Amino acid sequence: MDLALAPETLARWQFGITTVYHFLFVPLTISLAALTAGLQTAWVRSGKEKYLKATKFWGKLFLINIAMGVVTGIVQEFQFGMNWSDYSRFVGDVFGAPLAFEALIAFFFESTFIGLWIFGWDKLPQKIHLVCIWMVSIGTILSAYFILAANSWMQHPVGYRINEAKGRAELTDFWLVLTQNTALTQVFHTLAAAFLTGGAFMVGIAAFHLARKKHIPVMKTSLRLGLVTVVIAGMLTAISGDLLGKVMFKQQPMKMAAAEALWDGEAPAPFSVFAYGDVDKGHNKVAIEIPGLLSFLANDDFDSYVPGINDVNKAEQEKYGPGDYRPNIPVAYWGFRWMIGFGMTSFAIGLVGLWLTRKKFLLPQQLRVGDDEVPHLVLLPKKALGPTLTKWYWRIAVLTLGFPLIASSWGWIFTEMGRQPWVVYGVLRTEDAVSPGVSQGEILTSMIVFTTLYAILAVVEVKLLTKYIKAGPPELTEADLNPPTKIGGDPRDADKPMAFSY
Amino acid sequence: MELHDVWFVLIAVLWIGYFFLEGFDFGVGVLTKLLARNRPEKRVLINTIGPVWDGNEVWLLSAGGATFAAFPEWYATLFSGFYLPLLLILVCLIVRGVAFEYRVKRPEENWQRNWETAIFWTSLLPAFLWGVAFANIVRGVKIDRDFEYVGTLADLLNPYALLGGLVTLTLFTFHGAVFVGLKTVGDIRERARQLALRVGAVSAGLALLFLLWTQIEKGDGVSLVAAVVAVAALVTALVAVRAGREGWAFALSGVTIVAAVAMLFLTLFPNVMPSSLNEEWSLTVTNASSSPYTLKIMTWCAAIATPVVMLYQGWTYWVFRKRIGTQHLAESAH
How near does any CA of chain A get to the CA of B290, in Å? Predict the structure, then answer.
C-alpha cells in the first residue's frame, strides 16, 4: 500500500490535525476562565463598574472560545476507539481511568456551571453567580490535570504491568500514574503556558483598543492584568520547561537529542542555535552552537556527557530489537526552537510592556495620567516614547496575541512526534496501535470531514471573535447593576425578560 | 455480583442518564421545526434547554470514558466498528454545540436561520442514530475471533436497527414535547401538549413493536417486566398529557426511557457486544472488562462523583425552574 495513504499515516495525520486544532482553544479556555473569574471577583468586591464591563467583555470572548474547545474535545474522547482500537485494547486498563475521571469529575463541573454562569446573571445572587465561574475554572484545570496525567503515562509509563495472557497493560498503581514527575511537570508547564496564552490574548486586544484611544478604563485594567499574567506565566513557563527538559533527558533521551540535532554524544555538549542536518548520513552540515549549554540544561553541569541520536538509537536497538528508533529529526529540532522562540518572544514583549506602562509611583509627575487616559509608554526614567515608537509597541503587542498559540502547537507537535516510533514509550509502537478493522477509505473520509468542518468553523470563530473584540465592552444595564437576591430570580415581575437568552 | 457486573450496571446508568436528559433536548431541537410557528417561538424552545444541554451531553462523554476504562475491548470494538455512523454523530454534536452558542451572536436573519436549521438536523440525526446503534449492539453484529467488526455499513442499517432508530427519534421527540409543555407559557404550551399526544401515540406503536421484537428474539422474564413497564409508562404518560398533568407526564416519559434502555441492557447481559457470527466470539462482561484493580478505583470514583453530579445538575434545573414565553426573551439578539 502507498505509504503516504497507509492507515497508520492517515490516523496520525488525523490525530495531529484534530489535537493541535483542539489545543488552540484549550489554553485560552483555561486562562480566560480564571482571568474572567478574577475580574468578576474584583467587581463583586469593589463595585467598580469597569470590572463588571471587563468581566462581560472577556467573558463573551471566553464563551465563544470554550464552545469550540468543548465540541472539538468530544472528538478527542472517541477517536482513540475509532482510529486507535488496538491502542485502546492494549492500554485501556491504564489509560481509560484518567479519561473517565476527567469526564466524571471535570467535564460535568465545567459544562454544568458554565450553563449556570451564562444564564445565571438574573437568576443567582451575586456571590453564588461568582462561585459558578470559579467552578468552571476549577473544572478546566482538573480536566487539564487528568488528561495530562494520561499523556504523561504515554511519555513515561509507570504503575503498570504487562499481562501476557491477555496481551495488554494493566494498572497496578493509579496514584503513581497521577503523581509521577512527568505528570506533575507537564501539568506545571502546560498550565503556565496556558496563562501565558491568555495573558498575551488580553494584552493584544487591550493594546488594539488603547492604540485607538477607545474603552480606556476597561482596557487599561485589562492591559495591566494581561501584562502581569504574561510576565509571571512566562517566567513559570521557562522554569517548568527547564524542569520538563531535565525529566525528558532522563526518560526520553532520544527526544532531547533530536530536539538538539545532537547526532553523537558529547561532553561537554553544546546548545544548537541553528543547524541544518543530513538525516540519512546522521550528521549536521551547518551548525551554530553555544558550548556547554546543553550539558547544563540536561544535568545542571556544563561539562557533563549528553548522549546523541546515534548513541540512543544503538542503545534502543540493543534493548528493543532491530529497527530505527529515530523520530523525525527536523520536526523535533525546529518544533523545539519555535516553541521556545515564540513563547519567549511574547514573554519579552510582556516584560517590556510592564516596564513601559509602570505604575504611577514609579513615574515623574508630568508623565502620570488619569484613569480615563491612555498611559504614556515610558522607556527611560523620565522620558516617554515618541508617537512612532508608541504606535509600534501597540502594533507588536497586538501581534503577540498569536505567539503563545503557535508556541504551544509546536510544543505538542514536538513532544508527540519526538516520542515516535513509540505511542507508549518503550511499550507499544504507533504502527501496532491503529484500528485493524478500519479501512483506508473510512479514515480518509473522516479526515476530510473533520478537516473541512474545522476549517469552516475556524473562519466562523475568528470572524465572531473579531466582531466582539472590535465592539468592545458592552454598556451596563439596570439589571446588571441590580443582581437578584433570591436563587431563581426575584419574583418582582413575572414577565420581565431574561438578562441573557440564546 | 462481581465488579465487572457492577460496571455493566454503571455503564447502563450513564447511558440511561444520557438518553433521559439529552433525549428531551434532542426532542426540543426537532420541535424547532415541528412546533414553532415563528422565529421568536423557535427561540423560546431553544432557551428551554439553553442552560442545561451542555451538562446533559457530558453524560455521553462519561459513558464513553467509563466504557474505555471499564471495558476497553467494548470501547475499541464499538467505536472502530460503527465508524461512519459514529463519525456522523460526532459531526452533529460539534455543529449542534456551536449552533446553540453562536446563533445569537449575530443579529442577521440569515445567520440565525442557518444555525436554526443546523439545530434541527443535528438533533434529529443523533436521536435516530443512537437507536440504530443500540439496536445493533443488542441484536449482535459480525464480530470475528479478534473482536473486530467485519460487517459493512449496510449491515448496520437492517430493518430491526432502523426500527430502533425510529423508536428513539419519536420517543425523544415526545419526551421533548412534554418537556416544552412543562417549561413554557402561552400558546406554545398548549400546542406542545397536542403535538405530544400525536407523537406519543406514534412512538407507543413503534416502541411496542420494537420491544416485542426484542423480547421474542432475546428476552427473558426480567426483560419482559422492563418492556411492560416501558410501554405502560408511555401509555400512562399519554393519559397524563391529555389530562394536562405536565409534571406527571414528564416523569412518565422519563420512566419510559429508563425502562426501555434498561430492557435493552437486560437482554444484552452478560454480553456487551454479541457476535452474530459465532457465540464464542461475543464480547462479554468477563472477556471485555478491565482488571479488578482498575474497576475498583473506577468504582470509588463513580460512587462519589455520580451522586454529586446529580445533586448539582438537579440544582441547576431548580434554578431555571421558571416557565418562559416569547415575552421573556432578552431584547438584544446578542
Answer: 5
The average pLDDT across A28-41 equals 97
Cβ density class B131-152: b for 16+ within 10 Å, e for less: bbbbbbbbbbbbbeeebbbebe
Residue A318: its pLDDT value, please? Answer: 95
- Region B221-246: mean pLDDT is 96
Given an 8 Å threshold on Cβ–Cβ distance, is B79 in contact with A89? no
Q: Which three cell numbers stand for residue A483?
A: 443582581
Minimum Cα–Cα distance from B286: chain A residue? A166
Nearest to A123 among B83, B297, B319 (CB): B319
B207 CA: distance to closest CA in chain A (Å): 29
Tell me the three cell numbers of residue B71.
471495558
Q: Which residue has the higher pLDDT, B101 or B333?
A: B101
Of B61, B301, B331, the CB nearest to A497: B331
Q: Measure Cα distances from A246 to A181, A243, A252, A329 in Å.
A: 11, 5, 10, 19
Q: What is the DSSP string of B246-289?
A: HHHHHHHHHHHHHHHHHHHHHHHTTEEE-BSS-GGG-EETTTT-
Strand partners, A272: A289
Residues of chain A with C-beta less than 8 angstroms from the C-beta of B93: 71, 74
Confidence at residue A280, expressed as pLDDT on a 0 to 100 scale: 63
Q: What is the average pLDDT value for chain A, to the nearest integer?
A: 92
Strand residue runs (E) in A180-300: 271-278, 283-290
A36, A130 contact by CB (below 8 A):
no
Complex ipTM: 0.93
Distance CA B62, CA B64 (A): 5
Which 88-147 residues of chain B touch chain A by CB within 8 A? 90-91, 93-95, 97-98, 100-106, 146-147
Shortest CA gap A498–chain B (Å): 5
Q: What are the pLDDT digits (tens) for A105-124?
A: 999 999 999 999 999 999 99
How many angstroms separate the Cα of A126 from the Cα of each of A47, A71, A218, B51, B91? 11, 29, 21, 18, 37
- Does the pTM surpass 0.90? The reply is yes
Contact B274, B140 (CB under 8 A): yes
